[in-house]
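Hi U.,

Before I forget, here's the chain from the pilot set. I'm dumping it here mostly so it's searchable later in email.
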Amino acid sequence: MSVGKIIREARVANKMTQQALADLLGVSRVTVSLWESGQTAPTRKNAPAVISVLGLADKSLDLILKSGVSTVDQPPAVSHISLLSWDGISPQTVGALSSIVPSATVMIDSSADVAELYALSIEDDSMGPEFGLADIVIVHRSLVPNSNDAVIVVAPDGSRMLRTYVPRGRDRTGQVAFDLVASNPDFPTFSSNSSSPAVILGVVVEHRRKLRR
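Structure:
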C-alpha cells in the first residue's frame, strides 16, 4: 500500500478532515492533500508526528519514514506566487491566475499546488486578533471550504473580505446558504443565499503572521 493511501485510510478511520489533521501536524491542508494523492510524502522530520497522530502500526512507520529520507536532506525547492491587491481580486482575476503578471510575489514551498495559489496582505482588523494588519495569507482558489475555514469572498454588497465560513444548509431554492462571520464584533456578518449570493474566491491554507511591525 502506498504512503498516501495509508495516510488517507488512517485519517478517515480516525474521523478527521484533512484540515483537522493538518492543524494537529502544523502543516497546511494542501500539504496533507498532496501526501494523500502521492504527489509528495512526509519528510523525515514530520513523519514521526504523522505516525503518532494517526496511530499507525509499525509496518506503516517504516514505510513513511523511508518515504521522507530522499527529500529531507535536500534544500527545499521554492516558487513564487502572486501577491494580489484586494481592490483587484474578483472571480475573473482569480480564475485567470496563470495570466496575471504580478507586481509583487510571495515565496512558497514549490511542493504546493502553485498554479492554484495566490497571496493577500491583511488590510483591516475584521478578523483580529488571529489575523493582524500586514499578515500574509496564502489562498487556494479551488478548494471547497469546510465549516469554520477562513475564506476570501466577494460579499453580497460587493465588498471583498476575509471571513469565517459557516454553512447553513440549503435555502428554499436548493442553493447552498452560509454565513460569513468576522472575528471582530465591530464588523458585520454577511449571509449568502440564492437571493443575496456571495462569491468565494478561495480558502486560506496558510497564514504568515508579522511578529514585528
